[in-house]
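Input chain follows. Return structure tokens only.
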Amino acid sequence: MEAELAHQETAAALDGLARGRWWLSDIPGAIEAWERAFIAYRRADLDEPAVHVAVLLSRDHAEGLGNGAVANGRLARAKDLLGGQPDSIEWRWVTLVESERAGQPDLLSFCGTCCAATRTSPRPSRPWSPCTWPAARPPSRRSACTAA
């Protein structure tokens, strides 16, 4: 990613660099690259990827750095950008983060051993677990999850 960025800095390359850094548990490095990716997506008028990056930034500012004010600002920015796109899948990401922050017991429960929240699926025998989805926390920040 860094070699590609040395040749040409694109939003997608910055986003990829941020994801790589995140998986390596370099949260400050990931945030720095996502901040640059957000700006690049906005300059290219690509609102949906910019919203997704804003949601990721919101989560990492809250959970990784403990900065709730910046996290809430990023989430508000994501919602503003989605105002004209009521059918965007990114609304689901925004709603997930809002429900995590609200701690709504009907939407979320904590499995107790996992660092992430789990939501009960329509079929109780198959719970949904953030530990198993692509945006799960990096392996170094995950414990053995019994919810999956």
